[in-house]
């Protein structure tokens, strides 16, 4: 396998390992928020933010930890036949089926980008053009001018009313990391088919 592919696989593995190990500890933040929710409902006045904050933390935990789970091979597999196959047969099947996952993740990424643009007040047109224009304005004219480019920023309809764009940005990051990880897995499977372990 070419050096650039080996470097890509190692780089993606290292990045997703680091981010995945960080994401594992988000479970403690989730436990803390849920504990505070229980305590405040029992002894004090119930808080408005705990349920949604727990949902946001769970999204980050799940989405940022997904690529790490794929890297570690801890994702769920239906192995009625797969479990008895040789390493090379498994690599052929994985290299074929990962293409469907890549397509799905590409569609999901496009939807996440469009949804994030919507949450920042962009309601028409192409989201990539909106983000390009927003980035150019931020660099050339500063944050105040970039803020003027945004429209009505989406908020949750609950009583707490948090902004939605941070969790949607985490979705973009998580889907991008997953797409990079499954691409690395594809190259790893091609290597196994050729008898090379990456």
Question: What is the distance, rounded to the nearest whole angstrom, between the alpha carbons of the first and last residues?
Answer: 8 Å
Into which percentage range does the β-strand content fall? under 5%
Residue stretches low in confidence (pLDDT < 50, at least 5 long) are none
Question: Would you tell me the overall average pLDDT?
Answer: 91
> Looking at the structure, what is the overall shape?
globular
- What number of structural domains do the residues give? 1
Radius of gyration from the alpha-carbon trace, in angstroms: 21 Å
Helix content: over 70%
Q: What does this protein look like?
A:
The chain has 198 residues and is an all-alpha fold. The chain has one domain. It has seven helices and no strands.
Based on the model shown, name its key terms.
198 residues
Topology summary:
Blueprint: H1 3-24, H2 26-43, H3 50-72, H4 87-119, H5 127-141, H6 143-149, H7 165-193
Give a short summary of the structure:
Helix content is 74%, strand content 0%. By secondary structure, the protein is mainly α.
């Amino acid at each position: 396998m070419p050096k650039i592919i080996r470097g890509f696989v190692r780089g993606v593995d290292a990045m997703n390992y680091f981010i995945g190990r960080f994401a594992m500890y988000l479970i403690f933040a989730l436990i803390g928020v849920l504990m505070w929710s229980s305590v405040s409902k029992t002894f004090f006045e119930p808080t408005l933010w705990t349920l949604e904050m727990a949902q946001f933390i769970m999204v980050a935990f799940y989405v940022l930890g997904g690529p790490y789970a794929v890297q570690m091979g801890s994702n769920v597999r239906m192995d009625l036949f797969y479990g008895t196959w040789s390493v090379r047969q498994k690599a052929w099947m994985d290299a074929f089926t990962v293409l469907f996952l890549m397509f799905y993740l590409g569609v999901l990424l496009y939807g996440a980008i469009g949804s994030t643009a919507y949450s920042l007040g962009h309601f028409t047109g192409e989201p990539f053009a909106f983000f390009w224009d927003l980035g150019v304005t931020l660099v050339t004219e500063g944050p105040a001018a970039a803020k003027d480019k945004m429209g009505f920023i989406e908020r949750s309809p609950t009583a707490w009313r948090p902004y939605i764009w941070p969790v949607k940005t985490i979705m973009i990051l998580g889907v991008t990391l997953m797409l990079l990880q499954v691409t690395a897995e594809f190259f790893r499977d091609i290597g196994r088919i050729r008898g090379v372990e990456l």
